[in-house]
Amino acid sequence: EELTLLRFHGMSKSAWKRYSRSGSPLYDIARLGYKYNMMDIQAALGIHQLPKLKKFNALRVQYAQTYHHSFFEFPELILPKKPSYDHLHAWHLYVVVLDSKKMKIGRDEFVRQMQQRNIGTGIHFTAVHDHSYYKNIFSGQRKDLPNANFVSRNIFSLPLYPGMTREDTEDVIAAVQDVVKTYSRRRWG
Asked: What pTM was estimated for this model as a whole?
């Protein structure tokens, strides 16, 4: 009920309840809310995507496993860990943490190098306390969050979506391996 209120301006009644034959157009704004309701076009697209969800998830799992297998022996990359409990992972993102102590470059240069190899990456996500809005709220606490700071400075995500092809994943893997081998502090034999 709380989320229902929050999603559409704090309004006490949905459009269906206000405009149906048995409804009443009267409503109340019970609290401050947001405009988080889904548009009809989004719902129409989503309904037709739902039957494809299992296939999409299976492809994401396959690509994530391919990445994991391809990067497993690269200590310069801290790979996502699988939880110890039974789960179904959707692999919405494949997030890697660059172990910057083992590299001659930092995350931002790594991302630039990937871009030069025609591979897009994402930054998912910057630590909340590093955003300008929250810096005032969390001022002085940055030093108390060493793990968040490390991850925030070194995290990036690789392309992972159901429309990828095997060749796409091979291109990503080749680019990551090339950047790591080019800028790693260890010697490659």
From this structure: 0.80
